[in-house]
Specification:
Blueprint (H helix, E strand, L loop, with lengths): L21 H13 L5 E5 L2 E5 L3 E4 L1 H8 L3 H14 L2 E5 L4 E5 L2 H5 L2 H62 L1
Antiparallel strand pairs: 1-2, 3-5, 4-5
Helix pairs in contact: 1-3, 2-3
Amino acid sequence: MKKNNWLKLNRSILNSSVFDNPKLLKVWIWCLCKASHKERDQVVGSQVQHLLEGQFIFGRKVASTELKMPESTVYRYILQLKSLGNVSIKANNKYSVITIENWRFYQQNGRKNEQHFEQQMNNKWTTNEQQMDTNKNVKNVEKVKNVSSSLKRREEIRKKSEKVLEEMKDEN
């Protein structure tokens, strides 16, 4: 299996208008699979087309064959994806370059995402631990203050008691 031979599919797709139409969903997933995962040059006929991440060469005939749909249907669904903001299209008289919008955001290198997720979790844990430690420290300081004031109060009572006892002795 090739190293970058996979793509990510966000669960939010379940709530999208693309998901509601099985053929549109099929075309969308096909687009995601066709998109380049890294910058590269692709030869098309006698021309070299530079592709960025998330771009691919689109031709109705090839798409029709791969998707097992009529050319007009495929093109109609591609235009629908464009109107939904999922793709943008740069066309010439031979082929089109389709760009998956927000490709980098959704299809970042897995390691970068893992690092980002790990960093977020570490930040949350650190924040939570600091908050708990702070709360514990505040509680401990309050306890110390309470104990300290209790001890002072006890000492005051003890002194008063001794004083009263002394006075009572003196009276007798």
